[in-house]
Amino acid sequence: MFEELFGNCPQAKVLQFLFSAPVDEYTKQEIAVGSGISRVTLDKFINTFIENEIIIYQNSRYILNTKSEFLRKLDIAQEEFIKFHFNKQLEEGIEESDEVSDEEFEKYLDSLPDELDLDELEREIEFNEKILVNKKEYENLKDYYLTFSDKEIKLSDFSAIDDKKWYTMDVIE
């Protein structure tokens, strides 16, 4: 729901992840990996979540603040959103998804690794993450990378937002 309403922003991804298990405690790495964002990105706004009492930091772990009035209302909104989409699907006569047999489900579970390497998963997320920079930052980064890096940089025009030019930078090994 959060990504559909608020877009594919990292804050929405974190809220979606934390709402999936609201009483569990997480490290920053677990939140980042579970949300599909990098720790660097999470570090940019996690203190804002703490200051606004969305999450609580205790004993080196983070937990969703289930006593937050804002989150309670957001949870109610999520329930209404789900009901709305469910009723919409019923009205449109959307076909039910195919059922999976027990054997197929067991085969899928067997294909999953016994333990996830969170460090490797985090590196993969960071490598694939797009970074938005404004024109001034782009010029500074371009000069830095072209001067101090032996890697080839592919610069591409991303979009125009608020009359500012934004770019993505992909490092090509």
Strand tally: 6
Q: What amount of the residues lies in strands?
A: 15-25%
- Characterize the overall form: globular
The helix/strand class is alpha+beta
Helix content: 55-70%
Query: Roughly how many Å is the radius of gyration?
Result: 20 Å
Q: Uncertain spans, ≥5 residues at pLDDT below 50? A: 151-167
Query: How many helices?
Result: 8
The biggest sheet, with number of strands, parallel, antiparallel or mixed sense and barrel status, is: 3 strands, antiparallel
Could you give the distance between the termini? 36 Å
Mean pLDDT: 75
Strand order of the largest sheet: 1-3-2
What is the N-to-C order of secondary-structure elements (H for helix, E for strand)?
A: HHEHHEEHHHEHEE
Tell me what the structure shows.
There is one protein chain. By secondary structure, the protein is α+β, with helices and mostly antiparallel strands. It is 55% helix and 18% strand. The strands form 2 sheets. The chain has a 3-stranded antiparallel β-sheet with strand order 1-3-2. Strands 4-6-5 form a 3-stranded antiparallel β-sheet, with helices on one face. Helix 3 packs across helix 4 and helix 3 packs across helix 7 (118-128). It is globular and about 55 Å long.
How would you summarize the topology of this molecule?
Blueprint: H1 2-6, H2 10-20, E1 25-26, H3 28-35, H4 39-51, E2 55-58, E3 61-64, H5 69-92, H6 102-111, H7 118-128, E4 133-134, H8 135-148, E5 152-161, E6 164-172
Antiparallel strand pairs: 1-3, 2-3, 4-6, 5-6
Helix pairs in contact: 2-3, 3-4, 3-7
